[in-house]
Design brief:
- About 25% of the residues lie in helices and about 20% in strands.
- With about 270 residues, the protein is α+β, with helices and mostly antiparallel strands.
- The strands form three sheets. A four-stranded antiparallel beta sheet has the order 1-6-7-5. A four-stranded antiparallel beta sheet has the order 2-3-4-8, with helices on one face. The protein has a two-stranded antiparallel sheet with strand order 9-10.
- A hairpin with a 3-residue loop joins strand 6 and strand 7 (about 100-105).
- The longest helix has 20 residues, at about 195-210.
- The protein is elongated and about 60 Å long.
Length: about 270
């Protein structure tokens, strides 16, 4: 599943080609995504100028003069720019054609993504209860410490809770906990303030590094420019179960936490 760095990479790739451009038409080939694409999307968006392309958590917000298209890439979706009129292949469900001659094409083999329309996107039911963005000053170790008091759940699913902080998905939670030296199985309430401060720093560092390297290519992800991400080459823990730790050589262990695979080093992470 594309995580925050992959979605931000997509935003950076498509924004310069969309912002200030007017939509000539919208072609919807298959409305059957996680939620049906609005039947009047073409009427609402065609003729409008795109003002700005933003990101909130793992949602892309394509803001027009009146209204905003809320897009989520789901499990296997991607948005990329193609020449308008390029014949569509299987799973290429939507084209947003621009007067520039380009089209923003949405592809989603599993159809678990979303394309919704809202006049007030930040108060949309999917976004209104989200926690702070991890790369802003609203998120820090003190927030993690305060919210963790009394929480007996494991620390990994705790930091993956979108009400606590958005965008810390499985890959980057695994990597941040390794970098901070915290065992992902530890109860959230058992982690000290000092260790949460370090964890927050590592979350910010790792997410920022992943964004700069174009995200992590795992299965289907490509950026808005059609290029893969390269952060996978720098992973220390994710997907490395039973391999030697890159730091100490100890065999990495894999466990299930919150129905997700989690890899950790029994020596480096306490």
């Amino acid at each position: 599943m594309p995580e925050l760095p992959e979605v931000e990479t997509t935003r950076r790739g498509i924004a310069p080609h969309l912002e200030g451009q007017r939509v000539s038409r919208v072609i919807v080939r298959d409305r059957r995504l996680r939620w049906p694409i609005p039947e009047d999307l073409d009427v609402r968006l065609s003729g409008q100028k795109i003002v700005i392309v933003e990101r909130r958590a793992k949602y892309l917000l394509i803001q027009a003069e009146v209204g905003t298209l809320i897009s989520h890439l789901g499990m296997s979706g991607n948005l990329r720019l193609v020449e308008a009129g390029l014949p569509a292949l299987k799973h290429e469900h939507v084209d947003i054609e621009l007067e520039s001659g380009l089209a923003l094409r949405y592809t989603d083999p599993r159809r678990f993504g979303a394309m919704l329309w809202s006049l007030d996107p930040h108060n949309h039911e999917l976004l209104v209860r989200l926690g702070p963005e991890p790369l802003t000053d609203l998120f820090d170790g003190l927030r993690l410490f305060e919210l963790s008091r009394g929480r007996s759940m494991a620390v990994k699913p705790f930091i993956m809770d979108n009400a606590v902080v958005v965008g810390v998905g499985n890959i980057y939670a695994t990597e941040a906990l390794f970098a901070a030296g915290i065992d992902p199985r530890r109860e959230a309430k058992s982690i000290s303030k000092a260790r949460y401060i370090k964890l927050a720093v590592e979350i910010k560092r790792i997410l920022a590094a992943a964004i700069e390297r174009g995200g992590t290519t795992l299965r289907d992800f490509i950026g808005g420019d059609g290029q893969p991400g390269y952060f996978q080459q720098e992973l220390f823990a994710y997907g490395r179960g039973e391999e030697p730790c890159k730091v100490c050589g100890t065999t990495m262990r894999e466990v299930k936490l919150g129905q997700r695979a989690s890899v950790y080093c029994p020596k480096c992470q306490k």
